[in-house]
Structures are given as structure tokens and as C-alpha cells.
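Review form for a predicted model. The reviewer records the input and the model, then writes brief findings.
Reviewer: anonymous (R2)
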Amino acid sequence: MPNPNADIVLAYMATSRREGLAAALKQYATPDFVWWVLGMGEIQDKIVRLAAIMRTHFLAEGAKFDIHGVTADGDRVAIESEVSIPLKDGRVYNNRYHNLYLLREGRIVEIREYHNTAHADPIWQPIFAAEGE
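Model under review:
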């Protein structure tokens, strides 16, 4: 049976790729939205800065995003995905994600992001160090 909340999350993801994260969150998230990331904690107040860091260090050309699975139950939508993004220094960030989206009245109130930190840390730590984070 179709789940309208899964459709909302998929639309949010498509908007994020097409128009950027800030535009997608403005359209689909609640004002009290929380984004929790494994190894980082809550990042909702850092999203604009993280997007700027990505524009500095990552190449939009060649980026790939694949959804491997969607599971929805009421106001909970789980997405299994994989991203591959080339960096300007020649490395490639390729990671798998499991994001749990919690919705309230058709809007995203929380994202809980789980990913392979063994791959993410060697990519992100030098970037954060270079940016003074």
C-alpha cells in the first residue's frame, strides 16, 4: 500500500539534489527540525556551513545517488541509499546510508543518519581540519 510520507521524503530528496539542501528543508521540514548524524550529533545548525564546505571540496559533476530501499510505516520512513561524489583532490567519497525520517503532519521533523564512519572519517576529517572546524 502506498505511503504518502514516503512520497514526501522522496520528493524532499529529489528537491535537495535539484535545488539544494536549504531549499528542500525549507519546503519539507518543520521549523523545529532536527538532523542527527552518527559520529557528529545534531547538525541542523551547521547545514549551511556544511553545504559551503561541500561546494569547496566536492565536484557536482560526476556525483551519483542511488536509492536501494524504502520502507515506510506511518510517520516513519527509512531510506537505504548510496552516494558517490568526486572530490577536487581526486579522491571519491562513496558511502552507504540508512536514514530514518520522522514526519509530523506531512513535514519532516527529524532525520537520523547512519553511515560507514570508517569511510567517512578519512575523507571528512582533513576537510574539517582545513576549514578550521
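Findings: The beta strands are 29-37, 41-42, 64-73, 76-86, 92-104, 107-115.
Further findings: The mean pLDDT is 93.
Recommendation: see findings above.
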